[in-house]
Design a protein that fits this description.
Layout lengths: L16 H27 L7 H8 L2 H29 L3 H27 L2
Helix pairs in contact: 1-3, 3-4
Length: 121
């Protein structure tokens, strides 16, 4: 009879499972709904759609907040996907860590740029 001492939990790999699957679906749905909102606003505006119309669509505070929420969802969506790609396909731990750090820095930079564009800081 075998005696089991301690846990047999594996501590390597992208074992986040259901949480990541659900976050990918929720963020994708949020981005899809946002796309439909923006598309409806563009389709229901009269006249040519130039810079003034685009600026008008994103001028209200609620639209800026909604847009940034969707950008944050997009950044989380990208992080979950890229983290899984790095963990699945890059075997050397040092290179994988460097790629993950680069991805985080890049995504934080994109978030800062999005804030700057939306609120003209």
């Amino acid at each position: 009879m075998a005696v089991n001492y301690g846990s047999k939990r594996t501590v390597v790999g992208a074992h986040y499972g259901m949480r990541d699957w659900l976050s990918q679906r929720v963020t994708a749905a949020l981005m899809g709904i946002f796309t439909l909102v923006v598309l409806a606003q563009v389709l229901f505006t009269s006249g040519p759609v130039g810079y003034d119309r685009w600026a008008g669509i994103f001028a209200p505070q609620w639209m800026k907040v909604l847009t940034f929420t969707v950008i944050a969802a997009l950044l989380w969506h990208v992080w979950v996907g890229m983290r899984d790609v790095w963990m699945d396909y890059v075997q050397p731990v040092g290179i994988r860590l460097a790629l993950q750090i680069f991805t985080i820095v890049w995504l934080v930079g994109c978030a800062g740029w999005a804030i700057q564009v939306l609120w003209r800081i």
